[in-house]
Every structure is written in structure tokens, then in C-alpha cells.
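Sequence in, structure out.
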Amino acid sequence: MAEHQSVNVLFLCTHNSARSILAEAMLNHLGRGRFKAFSAGSSPRENQQPNPLALEVLRGAGVSTDDLRSKSWDEFGREDAPHMDLVITVCDNAAGEVCPYWPGHPATAHWGYADPSEASGSTEQKLEAFRQTLHAIRRRLELLIDLPISGVDHLRLQAQARELAAKP
């Protein structure tokens, strides 16, 4: 990885509507140009859209929601897709699925989070579940962006990302 090049990170979940969307938006917000985040789902539903509560919580945290959309991970297996340096699954279902071939064999890690869209209760309780998930994602992402990434080889990036999975 060249020193000026950003690190491309793909966040995967099943539907690409909540956790992976939160992670994509937050890393692009925090990444200071050193990181470029993307997200996708293994099996987004037809006409899947980002969860409105995820978008509300991101906007409330001052994070842009422009250009966020739910998409299949097939988009990132094509020849014209951006090269990924790191692929992180953020839900247990996607972690257990057979992932497609990623050009360039990016580093991989699994950061599991509970699905905030399964929270029950009032709208405020559901929003709080999304805020808690966003907070947990942000803590790990802050650690990731503080890593000395430039010049790091594939195996070291993978080891560092996997070590962060153990951080609360």
C-alpha cells in the first residue's frame, strides 16, 4: 500500500441495511481520507433500503448519509470494482456464509454486533439500540484508524483488524 493511498474497507452483513451501513458511514466520516469505506449484503432483499433508524442515528451523530444505499456484495466481485484491502463482516450470519472471491485477496476480519433492527419497544428504544450499535462500531473504527496502516502488509493488517474484534 502506497503511503498516499487510502485503505479500502468493505463491511458485509446479510441485508446491508443497518450494521454495515452504520460502519460504512462512520468510517468514511472518521477516516480522514486514509480510509474509504464501502458496504454490501450477502442477500439484500429486493428493493432493500438502508434502515430509516440507522440513517436518523447517523444524521444525529453528524455523519453524512449521502450516497448510502443497500447493495449486493456481487458488486464488489466485478472486475471494475474498487480493490479492497480489508473485508469485515459485522453480523454473524454473513461471517458464516461462503464469501465470493475478492480480487487481490484482501485481509479479512469479523466484528460481530447485535442487530439493532431487531430491537423491540418504542421508537425511542429502537433508536437507542441503533445508537448503542453505532457507538460500539465507532470505538473499534477509532482504534482501526489510529493503526500505523501505511506500508503495512496484508497479513499484518488482517492480524490488527482481527485483534480489534476482541475490543469491546
